[in-house]
Structure formats: C-alpha cells, structure tokens
Amino acid sequence: MTAASTTPLRLGTRGSALAMVQARYVQQRLQALGHDVELVQITTKGDVSTAPLAQIGGTGVFVTALREALLDGRVDLAAHSLKDLPTTPADDLVVAAVPEREDPRDALCARDGLKLSDLPAGARVGTGSPRREAQLHALGLGIEIVGLRGNVDTRLGKVADGTLDAVVLARAGLSRLGRLDSVTEVLDPMQVLPAPGQGALAIECRRADTSLVEALGALDDAATRAAVTAERTLLAVLEAGCTAPVGAYAEAAEGEDGLELYIRAVVASRDGSLSIRKSATGPLGGAEQIGRDLALELLADGAGAVVDAGGPASKEE
Ligand SMILES: NCc1[nH]cc(CCC(=O)O)c1CC(=O)O
Fold this sequence. Notes:
Elements: E1 9-13, H1 17-32, E2 37-41, H2 45-48, H3 61-72, E3 77-81, E4 93-97, E5 106-110, E6 124-126, H4 130-138, E7 144-146, H5 152-160, E8 166-170, H6 171-176, E9 185-186, E10 201-206, H7 210-216, H8 222-241, E11 246-255, E12 258-268, E13 275-283, H9 287-300
Parallel strand pairs: 1-2, 1-3, 6-7, 6-8
Antiparallel strand pairs: 3-10, 4-10, 5-8, 5-9, 11-12, 12-13
Ligand PBG binds at residues 59, 81, 83-84, 169-170, 172-173, 198-199, 317.
C-alpha cells in the first residue's frame, strides 16, 4: 500500500458516536501518511439489541460483524476498542497496529460534583461491567450497583435525569466524545483498575494483506503495544483459570535498565467480598511473560477460588 495507491482503503467501523470518532482518528492518521481512506459503517448485534451483553454473546458481538466484513472483503481494515476484542485471535486476521493509548482509567460521573467518598450509603451507581461492580463493592462504601447498558449519552442521561446518583465509564471514551466535563472523579487505579486494553484502539486487517499490515504498522506505539500485550496475556491466562472479573493496568516507565513495564492486576468476586491484587515489573520486551507470570501468581494466591456468581459469560465491560 503506497501513497500513490488509487483505490481508497475501506475502514470498517461501528456506527456509534464513540466508534465513529475512533474511526475518524484512524482515518486522519492514515491520511497524514498519504493513504486515501473511506469509512464503512457496519451494524453489530450489540448496537441493535438492548439486552444484557452476556445474553447476546458477550463483548465479542461488537467485534464479530466487523471481522466478518474483513473476511468477506467488504472492508480492508477495522478499528476496534481494544478492550472489546476477545483474547483469542481471529484466524487470518492480525492486529496490525495499536496506536498510543488514551488515559485508561475509569471515571465517576456523579450528580452535584460528588466524588466516590461523598456518595451516601445506598447511592445508586450504574455500570454493566462486573469488573467495575466488583471493585466498587470491594471499597465497602455501601453503594448499590444498578445494571446499565447503552451508549455513553444514554448512560450520562441517567444521572442528568436523576434515575441514578452516578455512573462509571471509561475516561477515554468520554475524552474522545468531548464529555470530560461530566467527570467528577478519575478513579485511582489503587482502588479501581481498568479493563485490560482500556483506552487503546486495535487496527485489524487480513494477515494476507502484507503490504497493508506493514503500512498500518506505522501507527503502532511500542509502549502501548507492550502494555496491552501484558494486560491481555494476563487476562487470557485468567480466563482459563477463573471466572471472576479481572482488572489490569500496565504502564511503561523509565527503570534502572531502560524502559520497564509496571503492571497491576485484580481479580475480585462480583459482590466484592473477595479480591486479590498483585503487581509486577519487568522489561518492556518481556510483556507476554510478565502478564502470564502475574496471572499464574494470582491463581497461586487463590484467584481460581474467587467465583463470579454471574459465571464466565458475564465478564463483559
Ligand atoms: N464496552 C464499551 C466500551 N468499549 C470501549 C469503551 C471506552 C473506550 C475505551 O476503553 O477505549 C467503552 C465504554 C466504557 O467502558 O465506558
């Protein structure tokens, strides 16, 4: 794929406001490199149905339709939120780029400027994510978690109209949508760790399109790639060994021997009664091993016995 190529690259995206902003960002980055890129909207089951994600096939529903469009040749590349991408890779597809990530932390959007510690006992906090539910319960604030789905506007609307006292959302999504004004507290990873891959994008294409794979590689950010590789390897190992929700956050930081990864992870029961947290550091080049080793340590510490009452299908964000 060279700057001189005449047929535009077809970039598949979901039609939600967040997906469109993300796709336009990828389009702009590629256009800056001289590629002609057009957006192709693909509707997924997750966009049409309002049923709980676990009932309609998990977070994978957002991804499956895009992957089918890639494999059918309807689009040449697809932009996903990395945290929605299953840890099992798709045959014949490759994540050719993971651009520099946004701040991956979760954010509280509460009424009246309230912070987590200001929420009264019994406050109604909306989230559809078992990971957020587990970690919020583990803080022991006595808040009530209310299941919630829908796009970012719908969720924020439940606070604005008084149905809920607060919602918890990814700060990255709010930032991309220009809604950071709704954030009343960015949650400290010491209290709430984000989902593996949160705040990062994945640009996927057909493995056989070797020149496109190479061209997209220009958008890859090595530090982000290493961080999300550690987080997602940890998730993959834990998915095999436990059913409870998982949070993980890896950061690249300057260490004594150059750049190092610092990863923190949590496995917690949905009701917050049990939670195990651990951290590790290692060389940036050893991301997979760092993630795998930390997952095995969590399992050795009993992560497998931390049971998610909702079962494995309810890990969705
Ligand atoms: N599953 C929904 C989803 N997928 C990606 C994001 C936010 C953007 C990101 O994490 O990159 C969100 C919304 C949310 O969790 O608040």
